[in-house]
Amino acid sequence: MAGSAPILEMTGITKTFPGVKALSDVTLTVRRGDVHAICGENGAGKSTLMKVLSGVHPHGSYDGTIRFNGAEVTFNNIRDSEHAGIVIIHQELALIPELSIAENIFLGNEETRRGAIDWVKTNNRARDLLARVGLAEDPETPIKNIGVGKQQLVEIAKALAKDVQLLILDEPTAALNEEDSRHLLDLIRGLQGKGITSIMISHKLNEIEAIADAITIIRDGQTVETLDVREGAVDEDRIIRGMVGRSLESRFPDHTPEIGEVMFEVKGWTVAHPQVPDRLVAKQSDFFVRRGEIVGFAGLMGSGRTELMRSIFGHSYGTWLGGEMTLNGTRVDLRSVPAAIDAGIGYVTEDRKSLGLNLLDDIKTTTVSAKLKKIAHNLVIDRRAEHSAADDYRKQLRTKTPSVDYDVAKLSGGNQQKVVLAKWLFTDPDLLILDEPTRGIDVGAKYEIYGIIQRLASQGKGVIVVSSELPELLGLSDRIYTISEGRITGVLDKGHADQESLMRLMTKTSTTPKDAA
Amino acid sequence: MNKLKEIFGGDTRQFGMIFALVFLIVLFQVLTDGLTLDPGNVINIFQGNSYILVMAIGMVLVIIAGHIDLSVGSVAAFAGIVVAIAMRDWGIPWPVGILLGLAIGALVGAWQGFWVAVVGIPAFIVTLAGMLIFRGANQYVGKSNTVPVGEGFQTIGAGYLPEVGPNTGYNNLTVLIGILVCAAIIGGTLRNRRNQAKIGAELEDGMVMWIRLALISVAILAVAMLMASGRPGTSLPISALILGALVLLYGFISTRTIIGRHIYAVGGNRHAAELSGVRSKRVNFLVMMNMSILASLAGMMFVARSNASGPFDGVGWELDAIAAVFIGGAAVTGGVGTVVGAVIGGLVMAVLNNGLQLLGVGADMTQIIKGLVLLTAVAFDVYNKSQGRRSLTGLMMQNFGGRATKETAETVKQES
Amino acid sequence: MRSLTKLMAVTAVAALAVTGCGRADDTSTSGSGSSASGGSGSGGFAGDSLIGVSLPQKTSENWVLAEQLFKDDLGKAGFKADVQFANGGVGEQQNQIQSMVTKGAKVIVIGAIDGAQLGTQVKAAKDAGATVIAYDRLIKNTDAVDYYVAYDNFKVGVLQGNALLEGMAAKKPSGPYNIELFAGSPDDANAQVFFDGAMSVLKPKIDDGTLKVTSGQTAFNQAVTQGWKAENAQKRMDTLLSASYSSAALDGVLSPNDTLARAIITSVKAAGKPVPVVTGQDSEVESVKSIMAGEQYSTINKDTRNLVAETIKMVQALQKGEKPTVNDDKSYNNGVKVVPANLLVPVIVTKANAKEAYANDPTLSKLTQ
């Protein structure tokens, strides 16, 4: 043991892509045995830095040096870095759903005997590794049969199988619920006790505050500072100040709600799962939205909040079994997405890349895509109108892009989300439903998106916000409904809600043992 | 040199298929001692490949929407035999025969569209079944015989524009059409530029634009003059005229109309499209139906050119049409491709085929070379995309109002 | 910038060069409407002219041999030969013929894939002043075909019918005999002719009960073999055997060619039945071996050498401006006109006469020793 000698020193790292300088003279020093957090806005260069470290960007494609365990290293691919004991776990899990847990753990690293896979050894070792990460699953269970939280643990077991010394986790809790997140953070701390150093990239500042021993902040491809938690506690505001280069007085823009009469109301809404007809994802749900009001929906993952919203949006999820809907005083029956859009409902999906955007499109095409009729004469698109409409929204929402001809795939998460918002604003909705509107978006862009949402409400529209982040709901909403097991379990006014009261309602399970089918 | 690059879209590599096409033409022109650009040969290239290119137009839309159609050859043969028999045995006039053929295409397309869009069976399976069903139907209806068609009908596959006006040494109508097409392209580009100026979009260098227009005009006029100067009685083939009209029509539909946008949207991300109010079932249905209608038209054009409908018409056509589409820059995963690109891809194959035949290269070698060209063209595209450049073909096409092949998301995502 | 100017200049010159000529060679006739018709063989042409030979798919030994012979012998006769196969089907053959016209071929010899689908191309050839000879397969529904050269296909059928009867009589002196009938591909004009020739012999015997077609499939369209494909014949034979010959004995099978004959024999053997008398045609190596081994009964020798030699003789006559040999100007009506035909006589070959029949053939003569 080299005592307190750093396990990793990256110095003067500069990485250029055609036309973009992604990293410029970045320095990162990680102490042995630490949990080291890396913070920065989207596009700051965090992931690029990790790709340089893990050999995704091979030696020679960047400038600067990497010293690992005191010696300079040159990795040409991921295999090289894994061989040295550095394992990266990506944000999008790299597990194969159809294969078993054990097969996934040893994928590319198979336990063999004379060229054939040794299944006994594979499963035994897998069982040991699963025990180390605290997962009591049969190693032969297919990955698709376990939840996201457990899959994340399997990823860590996979890393342990490779005798990891330095574990890099890119947004490990992004897709996890509170409980799974807590479990994961505990595990990382447990590994720390066993001598494994971790680097964690996260947007969740509370988690960083809770777990990190040191925090390096990166902004615009440059190291801003490294904060050592052991020398004194670092709070969220301190981190935010480093990330955005200024201190955010408030994380929510000022907004005075002007709430009018009820403009949207749902009664007795009941929906069944599309594949499992006797499983109800929404049960007799009643709720309403008033003009100018921002209504929050809180619920754990799997509680049915997204399912409810999508069902309301033109029956685009599940099998509708009953319930009625009133919009602007008239009863409406909207059984298709086009009907819902025409009636004035917009829905910003939770999964931006797979449901919200066509990544092949450019900004202007995306902006007008939900209401082409508006810029078409006799089914023929007026390209001037298209361009100017898209450009208006670009200015209004302050989307950072050279022009509206730019591909959406090239934008950062926050700007992509602004384009998605533009697309729905373009349909001129009376009621806009936003499902996880700020997921994977950095602090600066979040603030802007909150502002856009509040402006919509000020224009007298109804807004529904679904979010997993309770502080966001508490800061933004005028009223919050809670959902648990497909049932609306309560509603709290802004003044009466806090994280604890919400959580109590979100975890409230039905007392009746069985629902009438 | 930089100016030259700009004319062809930012990078000399990105000449794309147009460069390949020009290269092949020049190469064969030299190798064959000038036979390649012999008027008769230019006419032959168009006449002998129009039916494949017509199918490539339908196929590119199918592939953009994320499907494939393997049945086009069989559908073409089926429509061909029914029309030939209807004209011979029931004595219906040939224009009615053409309408009948298109109606058969619509019916067949509705059948396939039903299985793909409504029932949700992958198009690969549906059209593999269709390939067998309609091949069998062709041979059943025609009793595996060859059925001749009359002279009027032959016009759509073997006919030419008539001679009108004074004897100028050229076919006047052909020259006129060439001039009109040039005028339309120049006018369209200028109008587009004016519009862009009005909305304040970035304008390209004026000289670059004029040089490109000059090159395009010279190319079109050259082709028109060549065709107009062929053997008397020949001129612009009617089949090429049909092809040209379809390229304009479908080019417009795919880039400028709501349904066109919806086809790209469904192919690019079906779930996102549905949640944006696109009725994806309807799009899939229409795309499959349109393909069968164009396949029927292609079948009839071939029957007209062959003067008869036979039991093995259309065998292997699906592969030619699909190859044209992919050479023309479409992506297997859908959402990407252009009508003009597909037609140019088809022309590359046609010129290659023709040149090798003029050189007397055997059918076996010709197939090997064509296979390698397909592989090289797509590999070049893939390589370019992995380098973060836009696809060659795609870039060339943007000047025709088409949609360029875009990089995949992975290559540009530098930061999560 | 300089290179750009240069490019522009080159493009402009090239454009002028291709477009500037107009219809130079035809301006004299274009006014009068009718084009130069240059009746077949009226004037002759240069001795080193291009002769185009368009052959169908490369599917049998005979076509491969024909390709070689045409290449070699046209060359020896002083012509430039352009011999091509159309493996890609009718569309490819159409384009090939067009290319030959473009290249200025004086005579185009066509072994058609489908003789009814080449009207447009043959007309283009004719309009360009070329003479069209239909080789082995007649080109239909066009007046632009000048000659037809082939073995007498009706005669082939007659010979096959007779051989079948003789072969069965040799094995079993008296009838009735159980037989099955196979025909060629329906899109090949010759298939029907072979079948008709054979039936001209067999039909009376079927009617008087000497022959019995157990399956009852006696019509051409029942007996066809799609695409001349061995697998199709084999499948049909399998079906016939299991349907009609579980107990009855099969005495003979009329097969239109050797490839199908061998497929039929394979099927019979697989079913565990004794090999019946099977006819054939084409003198393929494998079938000659089979005949010498006593399995296939007969084949037809239509020596490709003779047919190619005869075709080249016709080309030479045309070159000199003479009229080529024609021995039948009545039988071959293609739907528009009667095509003058030069018919060669086929020879039936059984084990008995194989040695003398193949005496001149370097490959086959070895097999008959």
UniProtKB/TrEMBL annotation, chain A:
One of its GO terms (molecular function) is ATP hydrolysis activity. It is a peripheral membrane protein. Keywords: ATP-binding, Cell membrane, Membrane, Nucleotide-binding, Repeat, Sugar transport, Translocase, Transport. Residues 8-245, 266-510 form the ABC transporter domain. InterPro entries: AAA+_ATPase (IPR003593), ABC_carbohydrate_import_ATPase (IPR050107), ABC_transporter-like_ATP-bd (IPR003439), ABC_transporter-like_CS (IPR017871), L-arabinose_ABC_transporter (IPR053466), P-loop_NTPase (IPR027417). It is found in: Cell membrane. This is Xylose ABC transporter ATP-binding protein. The lineage of its organism: Bacteria, Bacillati, Actinomycetota, Actinomycetes, Micrococcales. The gene is xylG.
Automatic annotation (TrEMBL), chain B:
Its main location: membrane. It is a multi-pass membrane protein. One of its GO terms (molecular function) is transmembrane transporter activity. CDD domains: TM_PBP1_transp_AraH_like. It comes from Knoellia locipacati. PANTHER family: ABC TRANSPORTER PERMEASE PROTEIN YPHD-RELATED-RELATED, XYLOSE TRANSPORT SYSTEM PERMEASE PROTEIN XYLH. InterPro entries: ABC_transp_permease (IPR001851). Keywords: Cell inner membrane, Cell membrane, Membrane, Sugar transport, Transmembrane, Transmembrane helix, Transport. This is Xylose transport system permease protein XylH. Part of the binding-protein-dependent transport system for D-xylose. Probably responsible for the translocation of the substrate across the membrane. It comes from the Bacteria. Signal peptide: none annotated. The keyword Cell membrane applies. GO terms for cellular component: plasma membrane. Pfam families: BPD_transp_2 (PF02653). The keyword Membrane applies. It is found in: Cell membrane. The chain crosses the membrane at residues 12-31, 43-63, 92-109, 114-134, 170-190, 210-228, 234-253, 285-304, 324-352.
TrEMBL record, chain C:
Keywords: Signal. GO terms for cellular component: outer membrane-bounded periplasmic space. It comes from Knoellia locipacati. Residues 51-323 form the Periplasmic binding protein domain. PANTHER family: D-XYLOSE-BINDING PERIPLASMIC PROTEIN. It is found in: Cell envelope. PROSITE patterns: PROKAR_LIPOPROTEIN. Gene3D superfamilies: 3.40.50.2300. Residues 1-24 form the signal peptide. One of its GO terms (molecular function) is carbohydrate binding. InterPro entries: Bact_Solute-Bind_Prot2, Peripla_BP_I, SBP_2_dom. SUPFAM superfamilies: Periplasmic binding protein-like I. Residues 23-42 are annotated as: Disordered. The lineage of its organism: Bacteria, Bacillati, Actinomycetota, Actinomycetes, Micrococcales. This is Sugar ABC transporter substrate-binding protein. Its main location: other.
